[in-house]
Amino acid sequence: MTSQQVEIALARAQRVCTLRGARLTPVRRRVLELILRADQPTKAYVLLAKLEQERGKLGPPTIYRALDFLLAHQLIHKVETSNAFVACDDAERAHQSQFVICEDCGATEEIQDDDIVASLRRLGEMRGFAVERQVIEARGLCPACRVGQRQA
Amino acid sequence: MTSQQVEIALARAQRVCTLRGARLTPVRRRVLELILRADQPTKAYVLLAKLEQERGKLGPPTIYRALDFLLAHQLIHKVETSNAFVACDDAERAHQSQFVICEDCGATEEIQDDDIVASLRRLGEMRGFAVERQVIEARGLCPACRVGQRQA
DNA sequence: GCAAATTCGTTACGCTATAACGTCTCTTAG
DNA sequence: CTAAGAGACGTTATAGCGTAACGAATTTGC
Description:
2 copies of one chain form a homodimer.
Chain A: H1 3-19, H2 26-37, E1 42-43, H3 44-55, H4 60-72, E2 76-79, E3 84-87, E4 98-102, E5 108-111, H5 114-126, E6 130-141, H6 143-151
Parallel strand pairs in A: 4-6
Antiparallel strand pairs in A: 1-3, 2-3, 4-5
Helix pairs in contact in A: 1-2, 2-4, 3-4
The first copy, chain A, binds a DNA duplex through residues 23, 25, 27-28, 43-45, 57-62, 64-65, 69, 83.
């Protein structure tokens, strides 16, 4: 993601927050920026280390609070099987995300498939559950690592 | 699960292991039994505490090694969003599991839906991924807790 | 029986996440 | 204007999850 794209995403995030009466504080904004600039899912303690480089010693709660805020507003998603965080393309629209993750290199792609979400919701409802959140992740080998695997 | 059902499950597990040339050692067997007897998903450190009551101080690796073995042979599944383990109904057949989990009481039901597994596999393959493992979990409120929620 | 492999105990450590409390700031109603 | 309340953040401590590394003991295959 180019710096310009990051700026655009940050501006959009600011807009979303303002609309919702939420505050995109400096910490939250900076954490979102770090996630946006990363080309792979980012771990909480990596974010913490970067933030501490800039601001001196903080602590895990500072990061986790920012992450909780960004998650609540759908500005980021959590990849559960990696314990890592990625930026979300469109926070405006409420939606669920799915991911495919490479076991080898960690490459992660977001999927947006309404059908699979509906299917899982239906399976839950058939059992009387009111489904609120879905975690749908596929792990395996990305195209690049499949090639490497064959040659190894 | 009744004690008799537990015994049957353990015998079946023993059979599966023998067939595969794997050893269901006392530790592994006991861990499986503890998971079978629990009516909810069980956490690693809970298992560790119970095992240490019986055998004196051990350590996390003892439990995690047993869990890894049981997972590898599909005798148990891991509920990723709960960091907990449940017994598997049929280890003979290779399969993926899905779960619905109650946010309120932790009640967890296993789903076996081949269609959703195939869907996610296809979504991964469309992106060039060789999908090896799937995590599909729905979190929400179980029937009992839905009622409580309305009254509260 | 002996070498190799598997299993397990043990110690230590790293990563993930939250509880609890105090301070500061910002809003806002009076 | 100001006091009260809410929200955000810093800080310390701790709980929970998981693995690395090493050595002893046991099992297995030859």
